[in-house]
Specification:
Elements lengths: L2 E2 L5 E2 L16 E2 L8 E7 L2 E7 L9 E3 H12 L6 H48 L5 H44 L1 H7 L4 H9 L4 E3 L4 E2 L5 H14 L6 H5 L13
Parallel strand pairs: 3-7
Antiparallel strand pairs: 1-2, 4-5, 5-6, 7-8
Helix pairs in contact: 1-4, 2-3, 2-6
Length: 257
């Protein structure tokens, strides 16, 4: 049913601000005027019809049926479904990066453990001096508080190092699921997850010409993975050095999708 405004004019049926019909709302640019397209659903002829369209204030009437825009985007994402060889190479690079970082964390962890032990010993010495009457109570309280605060800081930092290792393992697992089937991952992503994935792959807006998409920039990791995949097709996987410089992909958090 149409809603009626105060002036008596019928208002078009409005869908939700963001729903399944418009996952690309806020990301698609009109090929004619270069402005950001919006989307809405209208009711008519016994049904509801969803469109991405330019806003009238821009003086442009370009529009596309929503399902055409959405289907074309899922097809666009299939280019990122890299073959197993490319993914294996990426995993190897991630593992090398992780092992290096893990070695550094082990060194840092041991250093923190030594510092914690040293602070505990200092607290013990302080307690002995106070118990023997060689330290005024005010000075003891001040020094004791400082040492306890320092111990707490070191313990917290030590715990954070352990958490970083566990988080990285989770990241590697979920990233592999994503990169093995980007288009499938997108189609199954939640309503809030789809925009996150779009933004992770495409730092800039997308231009849709009615059939396919184009953009000025793609996330560097995805771009290099495409090159690696093409190299494997030519049996010339020569992109390892370049890929290692950007692994793991910055800002990509598939576990949140």
């Amino acid at each position: 049913m149409h809603e009626t405004s105060i002036k008596g004019k019928k208002k078009p049926y409005q869908g939700k601000t963001r729903n399944d019909a418009f996952p690309l709302k806020g990301y698609v640019i009109c090929p004619n005027c270069g402005k950001l397209m919006t989307g809405s659903t209208s009711k008519g002829n016994g049904g509801h019809y969803s469109y991405y369209y330019c806003q009238r204030k821009y003086g442009c009437s370009k529009s596309y049926k929503a399902y055409i825009v959405n289907d074309a985007f899922e097809k666009e994402l299939t280019q990122f479904n890299v073959r197993k060889e490319a993914l294996d190479l990426y995993n190897m690079i991630l593992r090398d990066t992780f092992n290096t970082s893990d070695t550094e964390r082990d060194i840092k962890r041991k250093s923190l453990e030594a510092s914690i032990k040293q602070v505990k010993e200092q607290i013990g010495v302080l307690d002995e001096r106070f118990a023997s009457g060689n330290l005024p109570v005010e000075r003891y309280n001040r020094l004791s508080q400082n040492l306890e605060d320092r111990e707490n800081e070191l313990v917290m930092e030590h715990a954070t190092l352990g958490k970083a290792s566990a988080d990285y393992e989770k990241y590697v697992a979920t990233t592999n699921i994503l990169l093995s089937d980007v288009s499938g991952f997108y189609s199954k992503a939640s309503l809030m997850g789809k925009p996150k994935l779009i933004g992770s792959i495409y730092p800039e807006k997308l231009i849709f010409d009615g059939e396919k998409y184009r953009t000025e920039k793609i996330n560097q990791v995805f771009s290099l993975l495409l090159n690696v995949d093409k190299a494997f097709k030519r049996k010339q996987p020569d992109q390892k050095i370049e890929l290692s410089r950007v692994a793991p992909p910055s800002g990509l958090e598939p576990e949140t999708l």
